[in-house]
Amino acid sequence: MTTTQTTTNLEQLQYPIGRFAPKEDYSIEEVNRMIGLQETAPARYQKLLAGRSDEDLARTYREGSWTVQQLVHHIADIQLLNFLRLKKALTEDDYVITLVQMNDWAKTPDATTAPIDDSLLMFDGITRRFVYLWRTLDEQTQTKTYYHPSRQINLSLKQFLYMATWHVVHHQGHIELALGLQPSAFLGDGLSR
């Protein structure tokens, strides 16, 4: 295998739906589509993970990656964080996004050994609140921005919605790869391969 093939394969494993690449703006239809993807994500995760064995949960999508179990806990953690980020962006002027040490979070005992059912339940409940809050926002509010220091960019709330949606589907792709499945290609509008 050539270096180019190895790099391409690694890229596909790391970014099964493509890299994070926000557009300048999103139409009402695109926003509604992302909200729909958010709303249905917990059910997709439940279906994907139903009846999985401990061996399945210990699988990884590439060498050195997080396990399926860690990914499930991570998605719940970050969905909670994204809900809090949304509320802070809505209620604080000049908000700078709250950052966390994701790799360190993935190593805590709850991320490595806790049953995934609690995180799936948490993911479902937080997503319901996230979607409910988002649907109350008028188009003007959706253009409000905040600063993301690690990406060194200002993001509008529409771009933030893209980031949150990309994140949920990105890790769904990782779980599908770890379980030997083809990653779903149901996104589009810059969210899929």
From TrEMBL:
<dbReference type="InterPro" id="IPR034660">
    <property type="entry name" value="DinB/YfiT-like"/>
</dbReference>
<feature type="domain" description="DinB-like">
    <location>
        <begin position="39"/>
        <end position="175"/>
    </location>
</feature>
<dbReference type="InterPro" id="IPR024775">
    <property type="entry name" value="DinB-like"/>
</dbReference>
<dbReference type="Pfam" id="PF12867">
    <property type="entry name" value="DinB_2"/>
</dbReference>
<protein>
    <submittedName>
        <fullName>DinB family protein</fullName>
    </submittedName>
</protein>
